[in-house]
Amino acid sequence: MKSFVIGCAAAIAIAAIAGFVLNTVQKPTDQAYSTTGVRL
Amino acid sequence: MARLFAQLRFLVGALTLVLLLAVAVPAGAQQPSQVNPNASAVKEQQLLNALQGGSIGGRVSIPDQKSGMLIQPGGRDWRQFHEVTLRWIGAIAILGMLALLIVFYLTRGQVKLESGYSGRRIVRFNAFERAVHWMTAACFIILALSGLNITFGKSLLMPIIGEPAFAGWSQWAKYAHNYLSFPFSIGVFAIFLIWVAGNIPNKVDVEWAKRGGGILGRDHPPAYRFNAGQKMIYWIVVIGGTAVAVTGYLLMFPFYATDMQGMQLAQTVHAIIAVLFVAAMLAHIYIGTIGMEGAFDAMGEGTVDVNWAKEHHRLWLEQEMARTGPNESQRQPAATPAE
Questions:
Q1: B residues 116-155 near A, CB within 8 Å?
Q2: The CATH number fitting domain B75-330, selected from 3.30.559.10, 1.10.10.10, 3.40.50.300, 1.20.950.20
Q3: Which residues of chain A have pLDDT under 70?
Q4: pTM reported for the whole predicted model
């Protein structure tokens, strides 16, 4: 049971870090696929 | 005479007018079909023709030039696969495996510990191994459910919970699918590293397989730490897990490493391997829980009864006894955690 909890906690921690990194590195769609002359 | 010429001129003129009218009226009637004044109808016909197998594309002013392609033949094939073929493959694989396991359980029953519990325990998996296993397993279950939701949710779940709830659930399921892929991938890699040494096929596996692994009959063929069935599950996890991870990241980072056709291929491979993976893991979960008495303890608390080890992994037990001494490996009480 203890190993299961540790495993789940590790999964959540890694997923949270991955989510933070992805949101930092990747730009939102309206920025990634537009130019200054485009109105969205 | 002059009057006669005047009448003739009138007659010729009248005949010419009749002749002109006779020719002109049908021509006028045919005009709309020869020159279609409706430009949108012309384009629609071109679209319909293109839908028979060609591509429909145009020009866009945004940086992403791929968005200029509206419809392409590969997209139609992919849609057919995703909406029809994949559902059949998934349903047959998963429901087929479930039916097989139910029939097997009803006919064979649980694999019992024939010699009974000895009360002496031996460490099967240490804390790190179990934590890696459960991290990967927990991620897999959520990835499987959220992935199956993409394929079957619209048909099975949405009619039950309604469109708004399904939309909300699917959005969060997709977030979970994306982010939990990272600990899952790390888990698969860790599983590969920590158990690869015990999962190289050898001659003992051939003998184990010939004797039905002791599951089909009442036999107890010898095995080292991992028998042939466990090795098969191990390589399904390692190879299948790597395949779904690689194709999944191609989908998560669209067009970084591949084009439109590559994306469609990645999704197809990802989906097929994933549903087969789910079916294989159902068998793994079955034999690790209700299918075999005492098996869950190995990954649950980390230890197994010595008699269980003797029946299912005799060669491994002999190795452990030779390494630690019989008293060392047998004296651990049942409550001893494997940390």
A1: 127, 130-139
A2: 1.20.950.20
A3: 33-40
A4: 0.79
